């Protein structure tokens, strides 16, 4: 997830608009909360506003 932050810096992009569907929307929300200065806006479709499930938590731990 945090590789986006480095990619934005490499290409000298000051801010971006994120578009996410489903799990991608949840990932974008977490990214926006951590790096709010890099996000200009979000377009979220079918995101879930509850805590992460076991599968999402597992994937964040494994693929970090």
Largest sheet data: 2 strands, parallel
Number-wise, the strands total: 2
**Biggest sheet: strand arrangement:** 1-2
**How many separate domains?**
1
Class of secondary structure makeup? alpha+beta
Strand content: 15-25%
User: Which regions have little confidence, pLDDT < 50, spanning 5+ residues?
Assistant: none
Rg of Cα set = 12 Å
Number of helices: 3
Report the helical percentage: 40-55%
From the N-terminal CA to the C-terminal CA, the straight-line distance is: 8 Å
Secondary-structure element pattern, one letter each:
HEHEH
What integer is the average pLDDT? 80
Tertiary shape = globular
Compile the SSE list and pairings:
Blueprint: H1 3-10, E1 16-21, H2 23-34, E2 39-45, H3 54-62
Parallel strand pairs: 1-2
Give an overview in words.
It is a single chain. With 64 residues, this protein is α+β, with helices and mostly antiparallel strands. The protein has one domain (3-62). It has helices spanning 3-10, 23-34, 54-62, and strands spanning 16-21, 39-45. The protein has a two-stranded parallel ribbon with strand order 1-2. 2% of the residues are buried.
């Amino acid at each position: 997830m945090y590789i986006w932050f480095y990619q934005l810096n490499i290409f000298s992009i000051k801010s971006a608009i994120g578009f996410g569907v489903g799990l991608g929307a949840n990932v974008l929300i977490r990214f926006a909360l951590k790096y709010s200065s890099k996000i200009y806006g979000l377009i979220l479709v079918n995101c879930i506003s509850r805590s992460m499930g076991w599968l999402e938590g597992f994937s964040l731990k494994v693929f970090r």
